[in-house]
Design a protein that fits this description.
The chain has 16 helices and two strands. It has 290 residues and is mostly helical. It has a single domain, classed as Farnesyl Diphosphate Synthase (Orthogonal Bundle). Strands 1-2 form a two-stranded antiparallel ribbon. The chain starts with a helix and ends in a 5-residue tail after the last helix.
Length: 290
Amino acid sequence: MSFESELKAEGARIGAALEGYLSALGADNVAEGMRYAATGGKRLRGFLVTHTAQLFEPAREGHLIAAAAIECIHAYSLVHDDLPCMDDDDLRRGMATVHKKWDDAIAVLVGDALQTFAFELLARDDVHPDADVRIKLIRTLAKSSGAEGMVLGQAQDIAAETAGRALTLEQIMTLQSNKTGALIRWSAEAGAIIAGEDSEPLRRYATALGLAFQIADDILDETGDEAKAGKRLHKDAEAGKATFVSLLGLSGAQARARDLVAEAVDALCIYDARADGLRDAANFVISREH
């Protein structure tokens, strides 16, 4: 099975589980919007949760619940990021963004509800029998998604748009390590947390992977196909924002991404063939077309 087929199959399994968890919420606009926003996507973050967990223990329901939780956080971040006061996008995953399908107020509430639902999922007894483990998952995800992680990165991105000067490469790396990388790091470390194992090798893997992922996004924004991407491209260039491509050039950005993937793969050496899916995920990140 190719990695893309494996990712698609695991994404479908995570998506079905998430749909089941969300199905109990009713049929009001917020609940409908949550299900709508959580539809589709590659489920790469969820894949990282389940596959890192399975480095240490057999697959079980708790891994799927944690994967669904990170997909809720990711979906919430996209709903809010698409709002007119943020990136102002009309299209996401090939569908109308939530504020276009409903309105801005519903989109804010849908994002809020997805965020809190993620922590409700992680608090479930079937995630792990030990409450201390569940609390650690909740605490680390809160830190990764909040004012020391993703939200900080988004704020840094907004500030950069009005700073009147382009960011340096080091500043962009810091920004993206927060905005994109923090959730990817949590996704890779969650499996070790669940299993009570050392997460440091997976943190090194995910730190490199997160930056490679963002560089690939910058490359796709420059060279990609909007029909395949399912969203508007070339936004950064139109806004005059500094990106990895604008600072390193296209070939330089591609080379940096390849180096980061090699660094990510090297971090997995202690896991032998068990981590082949994670190695494939790193190579997929810089070869994807959307």
